[in-house]
Design brief:
0% strand; cell membrane; globular; 27 helices; Integral membrane bound transporter domain-containing protein; transmembrane helix; 4 domains
């Protein structure tokens, strides 16, 4: 019974960790709800009326979600500075509420300053958000000079409650967050291996579904790796430890992605294109008969399930003989003599399982320390020696290059501040024409659609999502208000539930978040005895008006077109891709060591920014279907390029320590064409009149006198050639959708 209970708890823990990496959403929801509940409890004991309860609850929510720093000390400073900002804001709101013109002008100035404060980092963003939201709060509860002392007291209680929840009840240290992210990485790695088992067993008519599960698992694993990368500096004791974890996370991610590609190749009896793993909706290669013999399927299934178990138990502290036996068997596939008799493609899958087992071993050593070595086989001992040599060679990273800073109106924060000020002015005028009492809803929507957006298209999509969530939220608000009636504490309990749902779903769906916000507002209006159907309908009208004002301001005032934004980010991705490729090939050719993994992660971050910026282009409401397909195809090709470049970088970093890898000076010349092609495409993206053409010619392997038709997985040179060839093919493939001319092959 105890063993069964532990197994159930472990499954629940793994699923929770995988669905919410680092438990960041759960922590944010619990912390915010706890701060509001504590504020309500204290204020109710002090005999506060409903208006003060609502004000305190909203202030506690703002004080909690506005602060984004990772270090607790920085959070404490920002929270301490936020209280006087909140007191000043609510005081000005109470005084200026009755002065129509002066109050409106000040509100616009406050909005400008709040957005402009983003240039000062997380602290400037948080203080600006607190100032704006608390001023809005004063309008919402109808603050006056006579109620100001009580409101200031409610603000103080709210900020103290937020501090207590943040630092005592639901603390989140950088080390703890990184630990939970590591657990999430392990859980998502196990989910990806499970999806690969399903791909092995999928019948021909369900291959597309199984392949999509592998795609999703690969993308989620990469997402978690990027989250870990962003937390390494604060969550590890020193730079060497951070680089070690970075190295092992990269190894595991690359090995898992390669295993999926090898399995797809063996399963479909044809060499799978790496793009197949990155292009959503791309059909699986056709299955021409039983590509994998039944006896090989049985063995592969057994070993994939063993790898799945090895991943799941890697961080559990289980060091029993059974686990060591499984690990030794899988690591044995790294030696040719241990491979079972099968076709070359199937043997590649077994080799991939061996490499994945090595990556899991390295990840466990980096995160939990070296396990017991008493049961090691020669293959396991060799893998451990390689990992120890790599760990010893890791040194601190170099200095980051200074980035050019834009000035004046070209600076994004200045441009956004001007745009939102103009949009808010329009929203104030239009909102007061709709309602002299609730005009601020239009301003709030205009403000929100500018948060974390850069282009007109992003603002349009965000406005659409907010309006959609608001419409459905109004319906929910009507139902909830009817059920609650005048039961104050029942309404507050439902408000807490909705707030938790709002924070838990915010990173997943902006539409869902808007739905929960609007439903919550219906309950707050009920508490303030101002609820009516007309009020909720007006909420929809004001939201639509605010979204329209935001789009108009973004389109007419210092506009950043979606095409321009995506082209800028595309140029950055291509620049990072050229840097990683050139540096990796240079090191593989015998050149000096470079910070390759750092460069690879810079490439991944640039690609993530591009992927986010293309959302307006690939959104279902986008009428230009051809453009939507082109954007998806280009991003998928770039993800393929990034995978191969990342793998080259990881292989190059093994040069100083791995006995089977030797520098080959010929690689530099053979890969020169690929780097030139990347630079040519980048130049064409920057200037559509650029006349350079993408080069084509003999395969890279043929330039080195290697037979690329029969690559041998066991030879590192052949693996490097395979990735260089796939990268070269993907780069040439980028030319067509980006309208870059391709030169005919010479000779």
């Amino acid at each position: 019974m105890r063993a069964a209970g532990r197994a159930v708890r472990a499954r629940v823990r793994d699923r929770t960790a995988a669905s919410d990496p680092g438990l960041l959403r759960l922590t944010a929801g619990l912390r915010t709800v706890g701060a509001i509940a504590l504020t309500l409890a204290v204020l109710s004991l002090l005999g506060a009326d409903v208006h003060l309860l609502v004000a305190g609850a909203m202030a506690a929510m703002v004080a909690t979600f506005a602060i984004r720093e990772k270090q607790p000390s920085a959070q404490a400073v920002t929270l301490a500075l936020g209280l006087p900002v909140a007191l000043a804001s609510v005081s000005l709101g109470a005084v200026l509420n009755a002065l129509l013109f002066v109050g409106d002008v000040f509100f616009v100035v406050l909005i400008f300053c709040a957005v402009y404060g983003r240039r000062f980092g997380d602290r400037g963003t948080a203080l600006g958000l607190i100032g704006f939201q608390v001023y809005f709060l004063s309008l919402f509860v109808g603050a006056t000079a006579s109620t100001l002392p009580a409101l200031c007291g409610a603000m103080a209680v709210a900020f103290c409650s937020s501090a207590l929840m943040r630092f005592a009840v639901v603390p989140a240290t950088p080390t703890g967050v990184l630990l939970r992210l590591r657990l999430a990485f392990r859980a998502r790695l196990a989910q990806l291996v499970a999806a690969q088992v399903e791909l092995l067993d999928a019948p021909a008519d369900e291959m597309d579904k199984a392949l999509e599960a592998v795609r999703v698992g690969t993308a989620r694993l990469h997402e978690t790796a990027m989250m870990i990368q962003g937390r390494l500096e604060e969550g590890t004791p020193d730079e060497s430890a951070a680089r070690l974890v970075q190295r092992r996370i990269a190894d595991a991610e690359i090995a898992a992605e390669r295993l999926g590609l090898l399995l797809l190749t063996a399963r479909t009896a044809e060499r799978a294109d790496t793009l197949t793993l990155h292009l959503p909706g791309a059909p699986a290669p056709s299955v021409a008969g039983p590509a994998v013999p039944e006896e090989a399927v049985v063995t592969l299934r057994r070993d994939l399930q063993a790898l799945h178990a090895l991943v799941l138990r890697a961080g559990s502290g289980d060091t029993g003989t059974g686990l060591a036996h499984v690990r030794n068997r899988l690591l044995g596939y790294r030696d040719e003599e241990n491979l079972p008799p099968a076709s070359a493609a199937v043997q590649d899958v077994f080799r991939g399982i061996g490499e994945s087992a090595r990556a899991v071993l390295g990840l466990r050593i980096a995160l939990d320390g070296p396990p017991d070595e008493s049961d090691d086989t020669p293959a396991t001992a060799r893998s451990r020696e390689e990992l120890d040599a790599e760990d010893a060679a890791i040194e601190g990273g170099g200095e980051e290059a200074a980035q050019e800073e834009q000035t004046g109106l070209r600076r994004p924060t200045t441009r956004a501040a001007v745009q939102v000020a103009v949009g808010s002015s329009l929203a104030i005028v239009g909102g007061e024409l709709l309602s002299t009492q609730r005009w601020y809803w239009a301003v709030l929507t205009c403000w929100i659609v500018f948060l974390n957006t850069e282009s007109t298209g992003e603002i349009l999509v965000k406005g659409y999502r907010r309006l959609l969530g608001t419409v459905f939220g109004v319906v929910a608000g009507i139902v909830l208000a009817g059920l609650v009636g005048r039961h104050t504490w029942t309404a507050f309990a439902l408000v807490l539930v909705l707030i938790f749902a709002m924070f838990y779903t915010a990173p997943l769906s902006y539409t869902l978040m808007s739905f929960f916000v609007t439903a919550m507002l219906g309950l707050l209006y009920t508490l303030l005895h101002t609820y009516s159907l007309d009020v909720l309908v007006l909420r929809i009208e004001e939201t639509a008006l605010g979204a329209v004002c935001g789009v108009i301001a973004a389109a007419l005032v210092l506009p950043v077109r979606t095409d321009r934004r995506t082209n800028e980010l595309l140029g950055t991705v291509l620049e990072r891709l050229a840097e990683v490729t050139e540096a990796a090939v240079g090191q593989l050719s015998g050149g000096p060591a470079d910070e390759l993994l750092d460069k690879a992660r810079d490439l991944d971050q640039a690609l993530a920014d591009l992927r986010a910026a293309t959302q307006p282009l690939i959104h279902p409401v986008t009428p230009l279907r051809t453009r939507r397909h082109t954007a998806r195809y280009v991003v998928a090709l770039l993800e393929t390029c990034a995978y191969h470049a990342r793998t080259l970088a990881a292989t190059a970093e093994l040069l100083p320590t791995h006995p089977s890898i030797a520098a080959d000076p010929r690689l530099r010349g053979a890969a020169g064409r690929t780097v030139r092609n990347i630079e040519t495409i980048a130049a064409r993206v920057a200037d559509e009149h650029a006349g350079a053409q993408v080069e084509t010619g003999p395969s890279i392997a043929s330039l080195l006198g290697s037979d690329a038709g029969t690559p041998r997985y066991g030879r590192i040179t052949d693996r490097v050639l395979r990735h260089l060839e796939r990268l070269d093919e993907a780069v040439v493939g980028l030319a067509r959708p980006l309208d870059v001319p391709v030169a005919a092959p010479k000779g």
